[in-house]
Amino acid sequence: xxxxxxxxxxxxxxxxxxxxxxxxxxxxxxxxxxxxxxxxxxxxxxxxxxxxxxxxxxxxxxxxxxxxxxxxxxxxxxxxxxxxxxxxxxxxxxxxxxxxxxxxxxxxxxxxxxxxxxxxxxxxxxxxxxxxxxxxxxxxxxxxxxxxxxxxxxxxxxxxxxxxxxxxxxxxxxxxxxxxxxxxxxxxxxxxxxxxxxxxxxxxxxxxxxxxxxxxxx
Length: 218
Known about the structure:
Radius of gyration: 21 Å
Shape: elongated
Distance between the termini: 47 Å
Number of helices: 9
Number of strands: 13
Order of helices and strands: EHEHEHEHEHEHEEEHHEEEEH
Structural class: alpha/beta
Strand content: 25-35%
Oligomer: single chain
């Protein structure tokens, strides 16, 4: 079973740590704040009050034995960079780091972070798309060019097959899944699968193509 280390238990870090723990994984959380640690004590496997910028403390905690580390210190850029470097040097194979800005993210990648996340920016993008286009339920950026979008089916799609809709030709988008209102999910749907009222389509494509689809909803 994978073991996860979460450094920094603010709003993002604590939510992530609790979710991983509730999914059945071993999770160690580290934070300087004693109150935060006390609040997290029963929510994850191990909650440790410590200064994660101290290399000796990290070694004493045996962090090198963890499979994945998440550095969720976004505000203290210097500490974020230092901890990311140390965790990679200690041999953790996969390190995810939270970034405060694009420049911060570039630095994190340069020093060895395997993945950089921008929680505030990403949530802002999701909310904006949902506010403008009510049929867009979720919006996830995969890269600067490509995104995944959850779209509530519109009446024009009801009772039509994916072959008839031909979204790849019309919009340049690939349908990855169809979510039914009875919680069924069709992964990699076939061309003959039919779209019904209340269905949700999960599509992936280039941002420009997704924008074309969004304009369709106006």
